Amino acid sequence: MQIERAGVVAVIGRPNAGKSTLINRLCGEKVAIVTPKPQTTRLRLCAVCNRPPVQMVLIDTPGFHTPRTKLGKRMVKAVRNSVFDVDAAVLVVEPVPSAGDIERELITQCSKNGFPLYLVINKTDTLPKENILPVIAAYGDEAEFAAILPISAKKGDGVENLAALLEKEMPPSPALFPEGMSTDQSDHMLVAETIREKLLLCLDEEVPHGAAVTIERLGEKSRNLTRAKPGTTHIGAGGPPVVHIEAVITCEKDSHKGIIIGKKGSMLKKIGTMARAELEAIYEGPVFLKLWVRVREGWRDNEAQLRNLGFSQ
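RESULT FIELD:
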């Protein structure tokens, strides 16, 4: 892979605007977890988009919002820290013909740093084309963008146009990430986020947002495991070594723990089954996954608990 130009692009916006979906579409593979729920992304991650001779490192950021917990403050801080030392930024907005305070603050943050800012109006597949013009006009009055592009990250409409424009912003440079590396996520983070995605998809409202996933064990085991308990998925004897994963779901209330486990362990089993299926595709082999659930009241507002769960300053 011959790379002649490489740079960094921050992808920013309010929760549920479609930032992670856009990044996955640009990369041509799933790098970031995606759910219909706001604040799915909690941690800043880098996704590597190789389009030889150009490499773009896309920073997926948490949704910018008014924080109500210490965890929320960390997420907002991650966004602010992401709009420094980048070559371009993409502000992803929904097709609403007015900018909100969140968008204005992000525009101000970017304008202070002098890099090109692209406005992406996402989810244009959800409304008639004539309704997009008022959105373009409204944002055109807010700032001087490098370009304003209507797209549908879900369907891919307009994404190639955005990629071509961002490629031109990348400076001469060798590759920032080696060939074959698609993200800066550790294996532990990748597994934890995969499990948390299934948690978000299976549960409603506040329960999944008050939950975190940590990996207690991740490694290969030379023999397969066949004993199954609630929250455990298994495969039969024989075959290649098994990737053995043990994970803990931390929630804030005893009532949430009961919901996550479900009647006779049914919900935990469902979450585990969905997560194992995706992890086996990632590892290209069998996975043994065991889940536990524990309660840590108010962990989102507890500095020590946040550090223990991997949310550093």
